[in-house]
Amino acid sequence: MRWIPAFALLLAATEVHAEIQIDFDPALLPVNGVVLDVVAEIGQAGEAENFSSSITGPSGQPAVWHAVWNLDEHFSNPTPVQSMTVHIDCGGELVLGTYTPEEFTVFYHPGPLLPPSELTEFEELDPEQVCEAVSVDEPAQHPESFGLQEVWPNPFNPSARVSFQLPSAALTRLEVYDLRGAMRQVLLEEELSAGTHELVWDPAELASGLYILHLSSGDLEDQQKAILMR
Questions:
Q1: Residues 36-93: pLDDT tens digits?
Q2: What is the mean pLDDT of residues 201-229?
Q3: Region for residue 44 given its phi and psi (left: phi exceeds 0; alpha: psi -120 to 50; beta: otherwise)
Q4: SS3 (DSSP) at 150
Q5: Cβ(42)–Cβ(108) under 8 Å?
Q6: How many DSSP H helices and E strands does the chain contain?
Q7: How far apart are alpha carbons 222 and 199 in whole angstroms?
Q8: Is the peptide bond before 58 cis (omega within 30 degrees of 0)?
Q9: For 188, what's the count of Cα atoms within 13 Å in the CB-facing half-sphere?
Q10: CA-CA distance, 167 to 55, in Å (whole number)?
């Protein structure tokens, strides 16, 4: 496993590692996969919490993905990292890869950001897997057109423009679901006239990930996929 953290800390005569950034090679991920997040489980065993990272890349020479955690407001002392899980959008399918260090060998260490000297490698990923381009089902055919238009931009951060068409006036509801099918936001619920409508989606406290926007108006329904990248 190729993984060397950003810098080392000597505690109790044992070499442990302090990490606030990791880099990883796109060539070791599914082809055309989009990294949504790397979630680090940080804290003592049984009390650890999950923390999302800020994702950038691929960039640099050679081009790599970067994940950074800025958690000094949470941790004032070196705190063990139990695991890291990368979340990848593979053509609309969520693919996960994990890195689990040996106990008390990797720590989050508060302080200035230092880049890692080598790459992190996640298990359970297949670099030969090819992710198909995300395709959205064609809206159901209804008189005078009904449906959601493509979310723009997509992927997006911090907000996106959502537009849709209604063939007739009706009570209209626009909801946001995660990949587990849980409703996370209601963007709109009101009586609207026929025609084209547009709003700005502010995902507020939602984490990076693939979300489904579901539009219903009368007995008509449609949906679109959107990727939020923090």
A1: 888 899 999 889 898 888 888 888 888 898 888 888 888 888 899 999 999 888 877 8
A2: 90
A3: beta
A4: coil
A5: yes
A6: 0, 17
A7: 16
A8: yes
A9: 21
A10: 40
pTM of the model: 0.56
210 bridge partner residues? 227
The amino acid sitting at 118 is E
Three-class DSSP category at 184? strand
Q: How far apart are CA 8 and CA 107, in angstroms?
A: 9
Two structure tokens written together for 79: 């705190």
Task: Identify whether the C-beta of residue 97 lies closer than 8 Å to the C-beta of residue 38.
Answer: no
Token pair, residue 28, equals 């070791």
Phi, psi angle pair for 35, to nearest 5°: -75, 120
- Residue-range domains of the chain with CATH: 7-108 (2.60.40), 147-228 (2.60.40.3080)
Contact 46, 94 (CB under 8 A): no
Q: Are 127 and 31 in contact (CB under 8 A)?
A: yes
